[in-house]
Design a protein that fits this description.
The structure holds 3 protein chains of 3 kinds. By secondary structure, chain A is mostly helical. Chain A contains 14 helices and no strands. Chain A folds into 2 domains: 49 residues; 167 residues, MetI-like fold, CATH 1.10.3720. In chain A, 73% of the residues lie in helices and 0% in strands. The longest helix of chain A has 43 residues. Chain B is of the alpha/beta class. Chain B has 2 domains: 161 residues, 3-Layer(aba) Sandwich (D-Maltodextrin-Binding Protein, domain 2); 215 residues, D-Maltodextrin-Binding Protein, domain 2. In chain B, 43% of the residues lie in helices and 15% in strands. Chain B has 19 helices and 13 strands. In chain B, strand 1, helix 3 and strand 2 form a beta-alpha-beta unit. The termini of chain B are far apart. In chain C, the strands form 2 sheets. In chain C, strands 1-2 form a two-stranded antiparallel sheet. A two-stranded antiparallel sheet of chain C has the order 3-4. In chain C, helix 3 runs parallel beside helix 8, helix 3 runs antiparallel to helix 12 and helix 12 packs antiparallel against helix 15. The longest helix of chain C is centred in the N-terminal third of the chain and has 31 residues. The chains are: A mainly alpha, B alpha/beta, C mainly alpha. Chains in contact: A-B, A-C, B-C. At the A-C interface, helix 1, helix 3, helix 4, helix 5 and helix 6 of A face helix 1, helix 4, helix 5, helix 6 and helix 9 of C.
């Protein structure tokens, strides 16, 4: 029979748990409401008639609801083609970047070799130059190797990123070494350690990098605009910008297009959350 | 935690092979990537044409099809020449054009803004058209309005031909005027009538917030300010374009008037609403009774079926003045086919192309011979537009960027200086005198630098 | 380097690095070096570049005398430097905000995936839409923020009037800082912290609890050290990206104004490069920025690196 003090303690702990859950939900709901407003506004605008966008007070529920905006946006530019292009390019870039970044991150994190830290700092340094001044040199370079107006131009330069290397390096360095040491004792080579120990343990980090890389590649506007000339290789952001003219912007169509462009990103984010719940499953309750 | 996984996978492989395997894998990956892009190399497919012309313009879905059509018609008329149209969507036209010039792959023919012409011309990036015109007696240079030709002249030479153009007029909302009992704007309006009407057309709600503005217009560019300054008799540069002389009592009066419009009388929206192209939206959603803009807004205003509007000339100050904006077609100096490019330009600025931009409501006629067409000045499809002729009439007193610019100073730079200093005046940081003096000083520095270079 | 004496480990390392390094060499470092060369030239893009030595740097950083006083050659530049630094101030606050949010979002209560997605939405949303919305919010007359301030004033009986936000030189930058904080709260940093929090072994918390640590102590002794690699990453990237920031807001939302008060170094570089035909000058600004960021990052690395716990 449990004594009263144990029951008391358990009861108070349960109370604390409930209080903290309520506190969490309160923060999340209030904050969440404000975070969702831009998205709601985008949806609302995408269903409006052009003259109803900037009325005062702002109209949250469109009247009438113009569903055809989505159809129009899809047809005005070859949206379907752009979708395919974007998916192809973004997938290639994401796979390539995560792959090469994880390899080099492992080298910087766990392997010793001459010039390691200096080389890493060099990687970092290249992120300190704004793209405005490197865009033209890259363009000239690609022109010299004949890659202008090709998918290669969209994919290959984007694969090499110091950001991914840096980020994964930090994660790899914080992994407990004992598992790697155990593998080494068992005769596993560096490649084996990388593939069998480090990568599986880093699922949240890899999922995160995948999401970030995908988003960046998906939303890249300026670069495809500059290097691609043929309409059939254009990507979605460039297609979206068709709704913005020199003087005027077709807001409903732009928002309808933007919503259609956003959907894969939301799906990807939600999908990647799977890799985040693994940590919780293995452990019990999280105490901050 | 994951010890089981590791135990299962390890089978005592030798340590030394991993490096070699990795080099091999890397090579494979690189090769696969290279090969995947191989099929989509740049360049056109199909049989090589004798001549290929690339022409480029800011993209807009409505136009792109028409421009491609024009290209196809050109191909039919000129067998052996292939054309490729590059539509550059959104805001990136300038970056793309400049990048292509930098990389040596500039299009043969491209759209150029009037205010960019001096820089492109004096840097030798575009071909002078006079020699081509001299060799082409069939070309009717005089059919183009002289003011437009002048806008595209640098030095004594013509460098581009107008593709679409417009002066700025006063759009007004007939319904709001009727409701307020104000007479429609006429050609006799001066600043006083304008202010009076704007005051009577401005409505505030019970909290004092403006629900409806009397007027709305853009001031985020030099020509927005210069409308008022020039109308009052001020001037940006002296006659010989040697000094900036904007700091005059006429100019100060003009900018004080504009400031009063937004701050004292509160009949026009404030400073930040100038940006992000929102001002025309106010007119579109009937929250502003008047709007200053060019004909390209007609295309947009026509989409709002509930909007009853018409146009009138801008009010006049001591003088009349209105900006003349145009986009033209120029030929790259690096083109390999100047003669063929010239033929294409003629086609693009010819009656067909111009009729189209007039019809959709994007431009006023650029050719005298089409000043009267089924769509201008009266378009049966839009009976409420009674006064489109004012666009053309205003060309008499319109000022093109060329007339107000200094040939050595780049437009955006000049515009940025003027905007910054007058911004400070508008928010009360500088007096009118000091703001305009700052503009003078900064522009004169640029003139001196350019003179020495 | 004497190749035959490289350890196996070093050889492996170079092999791992090879794919990334090749591309890095070709597509990243070559253009960067090209931009360095450009900074010593005058280039209007349409005509061939002209070598002018250090003139760009003198023009950017130098001073001259005018009316007996020292005046900078490019006064606008120093103003934009100030603007850029001002916008950086919000970053540490944002980092802590994201960490707090990540902790909340890491709790094992139902609906977390939904909330994480909601908080990430502003980052995914179209930039133009978000900026326009915030312009509305900041409208001095009918924007929600000033309306809210006025209502609050009614509540407490004191007539309050919100500032002119984006129309005011004094408040425009603050408006941007607040907006960036809000957008970034549930964004990249929160997700990074979430991933890091996932990696903390539960045993450490249990051990701390057994030792009698309360929640606050558990945070400082377990959580904070364990996520310090991520904090280090975020801090370093925050500086690197922050110094190049402020472009989109200026380009889309404020035009760099009013009176240049929201123009950052990045926007100044862009204007010089693509609007004013001064690519060489733009490159020199970029390289001056580079040196500053490089030095700060170096200090950050050495100093901050010591308190990182791997």
């Amino acid at each position: 029979m449990a004594d009263l003090s144990t029951i008391d303690r358990q009861a108070s702990r349960a109370r604390i748990r409930m209080m903290s859950a309520i506190a969490c939900y309160t923060i999340l709901i209030i904050g969440g409401l404000s975070m969702i407003i831009p998205f709601l506004w985008m949806l609302s605008t995408s269903l409006k008639d052009a003259s109803a966008v900037f009325t005062l007070p702002p109209q949250w529920v469109p009247e009438p609801v113009v569903w055809s905006n989505y159809v129009t946006a899809w047809k005005v530019v070859p949206f379907g083609r752009f979708y395919l292009n974007s998916i192809f390019v973004t997938l290639c870039v994401t796979v390539g970047q995560v792959f090469t970044s994880s390899l080099s991150a492992y080298a910087f994190a766990r392997l010793r070799f001459p010039g390691r830290d200096r080389l890493f700092f060099l990687y970092l340094a290249t992120m300190m130059i704004p793209s405005s001044v490197t865009m033209i040199p890259v363009f000239i370079l690609l022109k010299m190797i004949g890659w202008i107006d090709s998918y290669k131009a969209l994919i290959v330069p984007a694969i090499f990123s110091a950001y991914g290397t840096f980020m994964l390096r930090q994660f790899f360095m914080s992994l407990p070494r004992d598992l790697e040491d155990a593998a080494k004792i068992d005769g596993c080579g560096f490649l084996g350690i990388y593939w069998r120990v480090v990568l599986p343990l880093s699922k949240p980090a890899l999922a995160t990098l995948t999401t970030f890389t995908f988003m960046a590649a998906w939303g890249n506007f300026m670069w495809p605009l500059i290097v691609i000339n043929s309409m059939d290789k254009m990507t979605l952001p460039v297609g979206l910008s068709s709704f913005q003219g020199l003087y005027t912007t077709d807001w409903p169509l732009l928002m309808a297009g933007s919503v259609m462009v956003m959907v894969p990103l939301i799906v990807l984010f939600v999908f990647n959350q799977r890799f985040f719940t693994e940590g919780i499953k293995l452990s019990g309750m999280h105490g901050i | 935690m994951n010890g089981l996984n590791i135990r299962m996978g390890i089978s005592g492989r030798s340590a030394g092979s991993s490096a070699g395997r990795w080099a091999a894998w890397s090579a494979v990956v690189v090769l696969v990537l290279a090969a995947s892009g191989c099929g989509q190399g740049g360049g056109s497919s199909g049989k090589p044409a004798a001549v290929k012309l690339v022409y480029m313009a800011p993209g807009f879905p409505l136009y792109d099809q028409v421009r491609i059509e024009q290209g196809k018609r050109f191909e039919q008329a000129h067998p052996g020449i292939r054309t490729q149209f590059q539509a550059v969507a959104g805001q990136g036209y300038r970056e793309k054009l400049l990048t292509q010039f930098a990389g040596g792959s500039a299009p043969d023919v491209f759209f150029i803004r009037d205010f960019d012409l001096p820089q492109f011309a004096q840097k030798g990036a575009i071909l002078p058209l006079d020699p081509l015109i001299t060799n082409d007696p069939a070309f009717q240079r005089d059919d183009i309005y002289p003011q437009l030709l002048d806008a595209y002249t640098f030095g004594e030479t013509l460098y581009a031909l107008p593709g679409s153009s417009s002066t700025r007029v006063l759009y007004y909302n007939k319904r709001l005027f009727d409701e307020a009992g104000v007479a429609y704007p006429t050609a006799e309006w001066t600043w006083r009538e304008f202010l009076d009407a704007a005051k009577r057309l401005t409505k505030r709600d019970e909290r004092g917030i403006v629900a409806q503005y009397g007027a709305s217009f853009y001031l985020d560019s030099a020509d927005g300010w210069l409308i008022w300054i020039l109308q009052n008799g001020g001037s940006l540069f002296d006659a010989g374009k040697t000094r900036c002389i904007i700091n005059s009592s006429e100019s100060r009066e003009a900018i004080e008037f504009v400031k009063a419009l937004s701050q004292e009388h509160k009949v026009v929206p404030g400073l930040m609403d100038q940006l992000n192209q929102d001002n025309y939206q106010l007119f579109l959603s009937q929250r502003a009774a008047m709007f200053i803009g060019g004909r390209w807004y007609t295309l947009n205003f026509r989409t709002a079926s509930a909007l009853a509007w018409d146009v009138a000339p801008l009010p006049s100050g001591e003088h009349r003045a209105t900006p003349l904006d145009s986009h033209g077609w120029a030929i790259s100096a690096h083109t390999k086919h100047p003669q063929e490019a010239w033929e294409l330009v003629k086609q693009l600025v010819g009656p067909d192309g111009v009729r189209f931009v007039i019809e959709v409501g994007d431009s006023m006629p650029t050719l005298r011979s089409i000043a009267q067409s089924p769509y201008f000045p009266v378009d049966e499809r839009y009976p409420q537009e009674q006064h489109n002729q004012v666009f053309l009439d205003a060309i008499e007193y319109a000022f093109s960027p060329k007339q107000i610019m200094h040939p050595q100073i780049e437009w955006y730079q000049m515009s940025s200086i003027i905007n910054t200093e007058i911004d400070k005046f508008l928010i009360g940081q500088l007096s009118a005198e000091r703001a305009l003096q700052a503009v003078e000083d900064r522009l004169n520095v640029l003139i001196d630098e350019a003179g020495g270079a | 380097m004497r190749l035959p004496h490289l350890s196996h480990e070093a050889r492996t390392a170079y092999a791992f690095l090879l794919p990334n390094f090749l591309g890095f060499l070709l597509f990243t470092s070559l253009p960067v070096l090209a931009s360095l060369g450009l900074s010593f030239m005058e280039w209007d893009i349409l005509t061939p570049p002209r070598f002018i030595g250090l003139d760009n740097f003198v023009r950017l950083l130098g001073f001259h005398t005018a009316q007996g006083r020292w005046v900078p050659n490019d006064p606008q530049f120093w103003y934009y430097v100030w603007n850029t630094i001002y916008l950086l101030v919000g970053i540490p606050i944002g980092i802590f905000g994201s960490l707090g949010l990540a902790i909340v979002m890491n709790q094992k209560i139902p609906g977390m995936v939904f909330f994480r997605t909601i908080f990430f939405l502003p980052t995914i949303c179209s930039g133009v839409a978000v900026f326009l919305l915030w312009k509305w919010l900041y409208n001095p007359d009918f924007g929600l923020i000033n309306t809210g301030i006025a209502r609050f004033g009614d509540l407490i009986g004191v007539p309050l009037k919100g500032p002119n936000w984006l129309s005011s030189v004094a408040w425009a930058k603050l408006a941007l800082v607040l907006m960036n904080f809000w957008i970034g709260l549930g964004g990249y940093n929160a997700v990074l912290y979430l991933a890091a929090l996932q990696e903390i072994p539960q045993q450490l918390y249990e051990a701390a609890q057994i030792d009698g640590a309360n929640a606050w102590q558990r945070f400082w002794t377990v959580t904070w050290p364990m996520i310090s690699p991520t904090t280090f990453f975020i801090a370093i990237m925050g500086v690197i990206i922050g110094f190049q920031g402020g472009f989109m807001a200026a380009y889309v939302m404020t035009g760099g104004g009013p009176a240049g008060s929201t123009t950052t170094i990045e926007y100044y570089i862009y204007n010089n490069a693509y609007r004013w035909f001064q690519m060489g000058y733009a490159a020199s600004i970029a390289w001056v920025l580079f040196i500053v960021v490089f030095v700060i990052t170096l200090i950050n690395w050495r100093y901050g690196g010591r308190s990182v716990h791997y």
